[in-house]
Amino acid sequence: MIDSTVIEVRSGNGGHGMVSFIREALLPRGGPGGGDGGHGGNIVLVADSSINTLTKFHWQPHFIARNGSNGQGHNKNGANGETVEVSVPVGTEVWVWEDSKDKELIGELIHEGDQIIVAQGGRGGWGNAHFVSATHQEPLLAEAGADGEVRRIRLNLKLLADIGLIGMPNAGKSSILTAISAARPKIADYPFTTIEPVLGVVNYRHKSFVAVDIPGLIKGAHQGVGLGDEFLKHIQRTRVLVHVVDGSENNIVERIISINDEISRFDAELSKKPQILVINKFDLDEVSVLASEITESVESVKGLHSKIIFVSAATYAGIDELKHAMSDYLEQKHQEKPAFAVLNNDAVIIKPKVKKPEKIIVRNQNGSWRIVHQKAVRLARGSNLETWEARIQFQHRLEQLKVTKALRDAGIEIGDTVMVGDWEFNWD
After folding, report:
1. Is residue 396 domain-shared with residue 275, that is, in the same domain?
2. Which ranges of 303-412 does DSSP label H, i.e. alpha helix?
3. 377-415 exposure pattern, b = at least 16 Cβ within 10 A, e = fewer
4. Can you tell me the distance from the alpha carbon of 138 to that of 66, in angstroms, rounded to the nearest whole number?
5. Position 91 in a domain
6. Domain that holds residue 389
């Protein structure tokens, strides 16, 4: 099962606004009629419960949305680029991926239908109809569309299950999952039979809940030994842990302590979850005869407050008692506020944070100045500044955007070169 992958998303660019004038016989005062550019399409991740792995992203790691169309004359706005919706499993974390590492958690898709906009489409540029003023009745300015976002994100799947089956390799977790559900994981008499988490639906007295079989954990699992950290993350969202121990093994208490130590080192919150201790292989004489002795030794250890149940995955002895205990614990947890739940059941939509530009101008190494104010840059890109009238209007907009004030405050001198977009002029 692929539960972590990096993909690249590219939202659409905004369409350019248009400089146009309405000149018709029946409209002698038609005025400016340049339409706005359409907005670029977004890239949106949508939680889909019918998907349980990230395998498809191995074959399709790139997603691109369409650009917005340019504005047209007669105040006709360009069409918006279509949003690209990408289905991901419920329980997926979304991280910004930079320099081969996680930089920032964008959000989590916890419920069916939850959405995260991972790449916002560029805003469409304004046409010249937006720039009419008392001093400029025939505006010659229009905005270029804003660029879309290009980013790499890492999808990290943490399975959503009610019950997490944990334990050492070959303890019988897969056999118990088979006994309590319709799941059919691989079962064999050698360690590490299960190499990826397996989900199963448990039905008990008109109730249903989901259990996940976590591959066997070994010493150092919290540090990644035996891929333990990859497996442990799948129990972070479970509500109850079922700790399976092979009752025929020696040093049962030490084995229990070892696994509990690994999960608490990985995430201290895991040690606070309710835990059912299942002693497996009760059908063997060496286990059934020593049941009271095993119980006494486990109960004598401080910090182990687990409910103890003896079961046999082979004969199904104790399976009903285990189902009953799991159902009771889940009912108790249901009364509490789930750690990962939203206060209502409605799907949520997470939008990216709007980052305000930090700088208006920058000084180049050669002593020239560059205007980086986004609105000013888009005006320069979307307008024809070859005409004197357009340059006068552009200068007026720079005053309104406080760009000229920033240049004066920074110490610009007459004759200095100023660049904005692809246009260059001398300050006077």
Report:
1. no
2. 319-335, 374-382, 388-400, 403-409
3. bbbbbbbebeeeebbebbebbbeebebbebbeeeebeee
4. 32
5. yes
6. 361-426
Predicted TM-score (pTM) of the model is 0.73
- Residue corresponding to tokens 């299950």: 161
Q: Which amino acid is located at 366 in the chain?
A: N
The answer to whether the beta carbons of residues 178 and 165 sit under 8 Å apart is no
Centroid of chain to Cα 145: 27
Three-class SS state of 180: helix
Q: Are residues 301 and 403 in the same domain?
A: no
| Residues 42-91 pLDDT 10s | 999 999 988 878 889 989 999 999 999 999 998 999 999 999 999 998 88
> Rounded CA gap, 167 and 270, in Å?
14
Helix H, strand E, coil C: the string for 226-274 is HHHHHHHHHHCCCCEEEEEEECCCCCHHHHHHHHHHHHHHHCHHHHHCC
DSSP secondary structure, 278-331, as one string: EEE-TTSHHHHTTHHHHHHHHHTSTT---EEEE--TTT-TTHHHHHHHHHHHHH
pLDDT over 50 (residue 25): yes
* Tokens encoding 59: 């074959």
Tokens read off for 335: 């009364």
Rounded Cα gap, residues 274 and 157, in angstroms: 23
Cα–Cα distance, 70 to 15 (Å, whole number): 4
User: What separation in angstroms does the CA of 87 have from each of 3, 90, 114, 253?
Assistant: 14, 9, 10, 44
Q: Are residues 207 and 330 in the same domain?
A: yes
Same domain, 102 and 211: no
What are the distances in angstroms from CA 288 to CA 117, 181, 292, 310, 312? Answer: 56, 24, 8, 8, 10
The three-class DSSP label of residue 138 is coil
Q: Is 364 exposed, middle or buried (0-12, 13-18, 19+ CB in 10 A)?
A: exposed
